[in-house]
Amino acid sequence: xNKNILIIPGDGIGQEVTTWGKQALETIAKKYDHTxxxxxxxxxxxxxxxxxxxxxxxxxxxxxxxxxxxxxAIGHAKYDxxxxxxxxxxxxxxxxxxxxGLYANLRPILLFDELLEASSLKPEILRGTDILFxxxxxxxxxxxxxxxxxxxxxxxxxMNYHRYEVERIARKAYEAARTRSKKLCSVDKANxxxxxxxxxxxxQEIAREYPDVETEHMFIDNAAMQLxxxxxxxxxxxxxxxxxxxxxxxxxxxxxxxxxxxxxxIGDGTGFFxxxxxxxxxxxxQNKANPLASILSAALMLDIxxxxxxxxxxxTQAVADTLKAxxxxxDIASAETPTTRILGTNEMGAKVLECLR
Length: 357
Ligand code: IPM
Ligand code: MG
Prior knowledge:
Largest sheet: 10 strands, mixed
Helix content: 40-55%
Enzyme class: oxidoreductase
Protein name: 3-isopropylmalate dehydrogenase
Oligomer: single chain
Binding site for Mg(2+): 221, 245, 249
Pfam family, one: Iso_dh
Shape: globular
Cofactor: Mn(2+); Mg(2+)
Bound molecules: 3-isopropylmalic acid, magnesium ion
CATH architecture of the largest domain: 3-Layer(aba) Sandwich
CATH superfamily of the largest domain: Isopropylmalate Dehydrogenase
CATH class of the largest domain: Alpha Beta
Number of domains: 2
Strand content: 15-25%
Radius of gyration: 20 Å
């Protein structure tokens, strides 16, 4: 197989972790006799510094013509406490999602048994959890009209959804539910929000096309509570952009750390693969970040963008084997982890590649 892959490391720890996702792809190419051609592009704070634009045209053009994109992270501390900044790193990520039509964000909560002790939740609550989130990614309050009054006394973000936006992500989620345990939970706030009432209407309609899948509707506040009370009750979770953003950060604690969760954003064209974590400036450049989410994002690319299931499994297995051998980065170490088993980003990445080879 011959594929063109665009690497966008982005900001902060994005640089450090993405090199390991890329090396996992290179190792797979060698082992399974594929040709992966790599190109690189800038986005976010890095791109603002160089060009003034968080998503330069050149990056977008490269993205549109590549077969898949591996992305790192976005953001910089200097914007977090500067609400008045007009140009922000995150705009780059939102724009590329919109431009590439990446309306479905798949976030699997992959729980490795070895990490049961790393979570802040009890192992008996966690064991056996396997959730696949479908977060809508190009609509909602993220993309609605934004207003700030001249005198700074009022602001508004418009939350809106079109029927077709709900339909297409719902279909994707139901298709996935069919291949899993045939259970789908749609999360909304239909007791309060009109957008959620439309969401629920549409999901109920689509549900009729999938009578073999059991559908449940849940309010977001309840779902946030159930997720930590009894995560095993969930399988496929379908939700809107903002609710999905929040719920998946919460769910990352089931997997032990934000540093473990990979995601796939798909839609009309090129697929986009990225860890769910942010740029973590506090640890950037210190060889402390967990590279596993980037490596697992590479696995999702192999599986979803290229249909290379065996290769994808090999990568996931290499991560599992590394954890089984006792190796940890700081974020997934528990009180029982000997300090000699706690590795930096580069050492951890190298262990996974060793297992993969
Ligand atoms: C995510 C991130 C982004 C989002 C930010 C960086 C804009 O939190 O991918 O979950 O809110 O979608
Ligand atoms: Mg988020």
